[in-house]
Amino acid sequence: MGNTADPAITVHLPPMYFPAPLRRHPQIEVMQRRGLDWMARHGLCDDPTLARRITGTRTAHFFGYLCPQADPDRLQIAVDWGYLMFVFDDIPWDATAGADSGFLDMAVRIIRTLETPDAGLLPPGHPMTAPVTDLARRIHQAAGPEQVRRLADSHLKWLLGAACELCAAARAAPLNANEYLALRLMYSAAEPTLQFFQLAEPDTISEGEITSARVRALTEMAGMAAALDNDLYSHGKEQWLAQRRTLSSRPVVSNLIDLYMRDHTLPRDRALHAAAVLRDRIVARFVEVRDQVMPSASPALYRYLDNLTCLLRGNFEWGLIAERYTDPDGDHPGAVRTVATVSATPAATGAPSVPAIDWWWR
Predict the structure, then answer these.
(1) Angle at 297 between CA 291 and CA 298, to 5 degrees
(2) CA 317, CA 328: separation in Å to the nearest integer?
(3) Of 76, 87, 244, 297, which is the most exposed, with the fewest CB atoms less than 10 Å away?
(4) What tens digit of pLDDT does each residue of 214-223 get?
């Protein structure tokens, strides 16, 4: 294994606004052990390099920061899903084949398996088949029909967005900021992640509450803030990998910082600042709308909104420690370091000029 005594890349992020401190589930270490044992039982830790990368995702910390009061047995399903989906995300799907690649075929099979665990659509012997089927069965045992439908629909949106991202990369088609943010909201996997929030709680949020305009906006805002934070804390990893790719293999735009550098000819530090300002606007609006909704929320919705608030800080703190971002290829530990500063006030407020998301302010 490679070794890096000092970080090859250090990224200093601008101050970022968070409305609440980090909270932590008391059984993170238990859920981590169970999750890694589950991955090992399905043969996904047989290769030492892959096992190291799976452990380095710190997925139990991710969900333990996001849902600090959840039932640990129900949250374990989310933790196991997270460990598995990071492996799925890292499979080198062939972007040159666009939507005709194996990715879209596998995505359709996964979605149907979540709807019907015994559908028999996943290919025998594929490393995803047994664990996805097991997760689907556990979801059906733990969740009611409304939750199962919402979870399957959220995977449809996520995997459709991921397929669209592959197509954009294959076409080398530049995305503008509006297009990028609309697509980012889909392929960031925010929706299935937030559906697991609901699965981890014993009470189901009513259809009227979860589909109301304000709750939909809060769900999207929290997901977008997390996605933009990912753009920020993964930027050093993207730089490190870009230095080792050929020009032809680089994605059109790997994150919002790259887009600002390209479209507005901003230097890197100003592009980082612009991205942080946009996410601060979104977080500030989230707090404003959340405070309007919480007083009349049902207990189930109140817990959900509380978890969305935990998502903002928890996702960010997790991203700073996850080896997925500090060790870009699994063979250079400590190659990237991200230095962050937390602010008690947003850098800016008010709606940005982005049609795909400005309905949150209306």
Answers:
(1) 155
(2) 18
(3) 244
(4) 999 999 999 9
Amino acid identity, position 347:
A
CB atoms within 10 A of CB 31: 23
Alpha carbons 283 and 206: distance in angstroms, whole number: 25
| Dihedral sign computed on CA atoms, order 108, 113, 119, 122 | positive
Phi, psi angles (nearest 5°) of residue 244:
-110, 5
Which residues in 350-359 are b (16+ Cβ under 10 Å) and which e? eebebeebee
Answer yes or no: is pLDDT of 152 > 80: yes
Q: What is the pLDDT of residue 292?
A: 98
**Torsion sign over Cα 351, 354, 357, 362:** positive
Sorted by sequence, the CB contacts under 8 Å of residue 235 that are 6+ apart come out as: 11, 255, 257, 272, 338
The answer to whether residue 98 scores a pLDDT higher than 60 is no
Q: Which residue has the tokens 């998502």?
A: 311
Query: Burial, 253: exposed, middle or buried (Cβ in 10 Å; 0-12, 13-18, 19+)?
Result: buried
DSSP strands (E only) in 208-273: none
95-108 average pLDDT score: 69
Task: Say how far apart CA 27 and CA 117 lie, in whole Å.
Answer: 29
What Cα–Cα distance (Å) separates residue 183 from each residue in 124, 160, 167?
Answer: 32, 10, 12
Angle at the Cα of 127 from the Cα atoms of 44 and 251, rounded to 5 degrees: 90
Q: Is 15 helix (H, G, I), strand (E, B) or coil?
A: coil
Which pLDDT tens digit goes with each residue over 1-28? 455 456 789 999 999 999 999 999 999 9
Task: List, for residues 300-347, the tens digit of each pLDDT value.
Answer: 999 999 999 999 999 999 999 999 999 998 889 999 999 999 999 999
Give the 3-state secondary structure of residue 272.
helix
DSSP structural state of residue 294: G
Split at pLDDT 50, 70, 90, the class of 97 is: very low
> Residue 123: what pLDDT?
93
How many whole angstroms separate alpha carbon 24 and alpha carbon 66? 8
Beta strands at 336-339 and 9-12: parallel, antiparallel or unpaired: parallel
The neighbour count for residue 274, using CB atoms within 10 Å, is 18
The token duo for 291 is 């405070």
Cβ(119)–Cβ(113) below 8 Å: yes
Residue pair 13/340 in contact by the 8 Å Cβ criterion? yes
